[in-house]
Batch of 2 targets.
Target 1
Amino acid sequence: MDRRRFLAGSAALGFTQFFTGTAMSENSNEFYVPAEETSHDRTFMQWPVNKLIHHDVVFLEFLQKTIAEIANTISEFEAVTMLVGKEDQLHAKKYLTNKISFMDVPTDDLWCRDSGPLFAKQGKNLVVSHIQFNGWGNKQIHKNDRTIAASVARQLDLPLIDTGLVGEVGGVEHDGHGLLMAHESCWINKNRNPGLSRNTIEKRLLTAYGAKQIIWSKGVYGEDITDYHIDSLARFTGASRVLMNLPDQPDMKDPFHIAALETHDRLVAAKLDVDVIPEPQSPRIKSLDFVASYANYYVCNGGVIAPQFGDTVTDKLAVGALKRHYPGREIVTLNVDALGEIGGGIHCATQQMPV
């Protein structure tokens, strides 16, 4: 099921039960989510196994090898824990080095940024600020994935704090200094948060991250499974500093290009420092559905794990931009075309646990 060109109105395959509990106080500002570039205890990732999602077993194995390569690469910089059910761990060990640890958490798919735990700090303690995953608005099976964040919190003996929100962490970017940015399309949407006003959703997001302000842009409704997650377009690289990718020659008939330009203009208007990488002109994969996002990279301890798409010119420009934004870190690029073919990237497949 393609994440970029998912057809609106397709039959929902997911489950509709949501986590319920006492929502966080909207006035509470006692905790915050640290920026991704701060020190990590470890990285969490998910092992994809569900053949009802990935029907082609050859491609599923290709996905697993890609996830393994990302995990093995990150493990050279910091600890990595793979979330995988006990019955699938022996198979996973075929591809993972002995540096990777396992946590017995059954999974469906690989998108740990969306269904994994969002770790926050409350004083010196860690908690999980819980945004309930529902398969991007019940567009995909998520029987196991909907329980992952709560399961990890339980196994780590961390408080699970309900934000009162349904959605995905990949749908919001934070700079760790009080500022968020997001597309309205994946939050102010009846498939995630029916009955909640934009004002209520905004307050709950700010509380969930311990932030003070959010910059919204419209995004794109119903054209991909995520309703246009911002982490494939723009990323905070520091306080009020943004790195994003844009097409050199926008197609003004393409809703994603139009939305990307609008987001860029909103960020500039907010007086943020915005740096732009051009999208690849000649990627290995030519399909219109392929997501070739340089912004979908992951920052770990001492390194940045980033995609390369086979366009020697723009691949080099992207590495140069990452070196500017993350001086002193080693930039490692990987061929993760398998993730691009199903609409995501390295950032979508990872989730950091702060020290």
Target 2
Amino acid sequence: MILPRRLFLRLVLAAIFVPLADSGAGAGTAAAARPLFAVCGAYPPEMEALHAVFGVDEAAGWERSEWKGITLHRGTFAGKDLVVFSTGVSIVNATMRLQAALDHLPITHVLFAGVAGGIDPSLHVGDVVIPERWTYHSEAAYLNEDGKGGYFVPEYFKPRYENFGMIFPDDVAVRREGEATFVDVPAFPADPLLVARARAVLPSLPEMRKAGRAVSVLVGGTGVAGPVFLDNARYREWVFRVWQARCLDMESTALAHVAYANHKPILIVRGLSDLAGGQHGLNPIDDNEAPVSVIAARVLREVIAGL
């Protein structure tokens, strides 16, 4: 029997494309699309809290591996695939280690929980902040005094912000794939959908207490970071005046910077372990870093559980 030409072409096309649609390659593509959430802290108190709160335990089936000095634990929580690792302390470590992890694994989202110094004078130790943007406070020009109450400002430099003595802060220029040149980025955004999810879980968060008071959890506003452990009241006041910042730490803006450059959604949860110099006397971080790390990790757990 001779088939009509149109029917013959249909049968040939079906023979070609149906096996492709049912092939293992197609199934693998679907599997690869499953989200992989990076859950990070910076240093031991934060990592211990994350391991405890998310049940990271090799005896429970979490897989441990090493990559360029980074210890990675992969497992599941609330039906999501997680990889848990430390960014290390400070801007350079956070940048290097997050980028290495992104290059090594198909991470789709970056999440962080840890401690920070409180900048907003309305907040207290133990409170949690989830900023919607992150900026650098110490990317700056350090300038000489001109003897007339001002400073010698180079021609190339156009001050954008109030200075702190000789320190004149500046924005960072970033070039992302697909862009023709470097572009100034005043602040790096947290992912709007993750921020919205954080807001949505606020009413259902269990009460958490620190020093006899129920802690507040606030979503939105600005966080700042730099390679500085801040314990100075005057600098703290200046940071709040310039950026209306809620908190200050040593990693978050670098993490948001890397996520921005790699087009990865990010959300950072920071519990206030101290007041960044706003306290009377000795900084209390040593007493607070462990319990406040747990509070921040619990908030992140609720965000992830509801995704």
